[in-house]
Amino acid sequence: MIVLALAAAIQPTVIFSDGFENGILNSWGDRKGTMEIVTDDPYQGEHCIKFTGEIGTGEGSKLVQWFMPGYDEIAIKWAVKFADDFDQGRFMHLCAVGGNRTDNKWSSFGKAGLKPNGTDFFITNLEPWLGKNSPPGRLMTYSYWPDMKKSGDGKYWGNMTLSNPPIQVPRDKWVVMSLWIKLNTPGKHDGEQAFWMDGKLGGHDKGIRYRDSNILKLNSLFLDLYLHDSKQINVCWFDDVVVSREPFAWMKDIAQSKTQKKTDD
Q1: Least crowded by CB within 10 Å, which of 68, 81, 127, 129?
Q2: Peptide bond before 186: cis, by omega within 30 degrees of 0?
Q3: H or E element: which one contains 56?
């Protein structure tokens, strides 16, 4: 127990980062789709990564990174820029933080439409919601947890927290999206999550029960461009990805922030 405590104490604040400056993706755990490291107007440095989503249903590109066995609290940020003609159509997913079982890093995969049971998975996406907004849309979180609401079709699609006041995600401009999650004490409703764009708070949810067991931890990050039904090729760029064990500077006021209402898609 003493050895474990000392090991935890010396872990660095930043547990993963990638600005794509080395031109390779070897530090990532899994990848899918069309992506390439480019020098097209990076957020900082000389390189960024370009994701392409093709025309069709269920098209997209994804990079996955695990940090097993995981953490009870993390903060994540990434820079993203959408093409000047970006229009995802009906719906999309962008980036997500996943909670997998410590004995199965894949336990949050393939769970769309399913309700977590407290010991299998949880997940939160940070992404634009088109709705009646201009594309890409209004910043929101899209989350799965055991107390989530059922959707009208009888399935459990992610529950949404829309940025309030609304934060419009722009096209053809770099922005920094960030997400902070603190897990609950197993079985209790004391978990929290909050999200920002360029340091502006979008929403802060409290009283969340993500898990009923310590078998679930925060332990995966998806850089994602998933298009439900796109009529055109869509492109976005990512840069400066950082995963931290502690909140970033602009997150320090989260305890005083007002809880936002959750709705389901």
Answers
A1: 68
A2: no
A3: strand 56-71
Q: How far apart are CA 91 and CA 188, in angstroms?
A: 33
Locate 158 and state its tokens: 């992610």
Q: Is the whole model's pTM more than 0.85, yes or no?
A: yes
Residues facing 97 on adjacent strands = 124, 221
Taking only the tens of pLDDT, the chain with its 265 residues reads 444 444 444 456 999 999 999 998 988 999 999 999 999 899 999 999 999 999 988 888 999 999 999 999 999 999 999 999 999 988 899 999 999 999 999 999 999 999 999 999 999 999 999 999 999 999 999 999 999 999 999 999 999 999 999 999 999 999 999 999 999 999 999 999 999 999 999 999 999 999 999 999 999 999 999 999 889 999 999 999 999 999 999 897 774 444 444 444 4
Domain coordinates in residue numbering, the chain? 15-264
Nearest to 114 by CA among 72, 71, 154: 154
Residue 216: partners with Cβ closer than 8 Å, 6 or more residues away: 70, 99, 100, 101, 102, 118, 119, 120, 121, 122, 183, 210
CATH placement of domain 15-264: 2.60.120.200
Place of tokens 């820079």: 79
